[in-house]
């Protein structure tokens, strides 16, 4: 089994480089937009692509805000104590921030308007629990697979092949995040059923269709299953609604 440094390095090596490379494909279009070049009316397919990217941007805003909350000047900064956990939080925060910027640039290059960043409040997920390494990793184990399954649910609806490749790049990185957080939870003794493979994380076996956080099970294998099951946009938005003000 790889150590924590190998895990986080592998995740880090595929994130900004891969997706920013795809985002650069649209740089020329953004330059033309900034120069005021006239374009024809957006097609229905182009509008749908932009809508999907804005949906993805909202989820990336959420994930970036979550990790930022536990580092730097975030509201829960100082609550983490294990150096490996702190390293994970900082590196994944950087990944998610890069995803946000890349999506915003891509949306603009496609003549769309990036959605504004919502106000997030993670206290409904935390409740009266003690904020520490274990809780942070438990929440990460719940949030990360939602992102994976959200991308999977929308990628087939994109009409632009370059956008499909870019979405696949982010999807791969988010899946790496899932494995990395569960590897870390196993090492620290926080994952009670590390052998449980699943294709519906974080949803549980007993309540596989629930979108309520109280019904989720954060304990599953670092390699969840051979195949993931997609989440619809409606299901994802129902899951994240409690933390969006």
Automatic annotation (TrEMBL):
<keyword id="KW-0812">Transmembrane</keyword>
<dbReference type="InterPro" id="IPR006311">
    <property type="entry name" value="TAT_signal"/>
</dbReference>
<dbReference type="InterPro" id="IPR012347">
    <property type="entry name" value="Ferritin-like"/>
</dbReference>
<dbReference type="InterPro" id="IPR052965">
    <property type="entry name" value="Pigment-catalase-like"/>
</dbReference>
<dbReference type="Pfam" id="PF13668">
    <property type="entry name" value="Ferritin_2"/>
</dbReference>
<feature type="transmembrane region" description="Helical">
    <location>
        <begin position="20"/>
        <end position="39"/>
    </location>
</feature>
<protein>
    <recommendedName>
        <fullName>Ferritin-like domain-containing protein</fullName>
    </recommendedName>
</protein>
<keyword id="KW-0472">Membrane</keyword>
<keyword id="KW-1133">Transmembrane helix</keyword>
<dbReference type="InterPro" id="IPR009078">
    <property type="entry name" value="Ferritin-like_SF"/>
</dbReference>
């Amino acid at each position: 089994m790889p150590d924590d440094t190998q895990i986080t390095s592998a995740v880090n090596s595929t994130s900004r480089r891969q997706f920013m490379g795809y985002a650069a494909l649209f740089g020329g279009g953004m330059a033309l937009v900034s120069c005021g070049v006239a374009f024809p009316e957006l097609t229905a397919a182009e509008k749908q692509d932009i809508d999907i990217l804005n949906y993805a941007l909202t989820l990336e805003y959420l994930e970036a805000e979550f990790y930022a909350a536990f580092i730097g000047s975030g509201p829960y900064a100082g609550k983490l104590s294990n150096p490996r956990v702190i390293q994970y939080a900082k590196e994944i925060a950087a990944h998610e921030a890069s995803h946000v910027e890349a999506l915003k640039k891509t949306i603009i290059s496609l003549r769309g308007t990036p959605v504004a960043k919502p106000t997030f409040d993670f206290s409904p997920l935390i409740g009266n629990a003690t904020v520490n390494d274990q809780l942070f990793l438990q929440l990460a184990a719940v949030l990360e697979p939602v992102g994976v399954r959200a991308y999977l649910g929308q990628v087939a609806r994109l009409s632009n092949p370059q956008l499909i490749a870019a979405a696949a790049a982010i999807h791969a990185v988010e899946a790496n995040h899932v494995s990395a957080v569960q590897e870390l939870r196993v090492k620290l003794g926080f994952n009670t059923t590390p052998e449980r493979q699943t294709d519906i994380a974080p949803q549980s076996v007993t309540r596989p269709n629930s979108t309520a956080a109280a019904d989720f099970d954060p304990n599953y294998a670092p390699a969840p299953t051979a195949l993931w099951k997609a989440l619809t946009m409606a299901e994802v938005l129902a899951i994240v609604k409690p933390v969006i003000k």
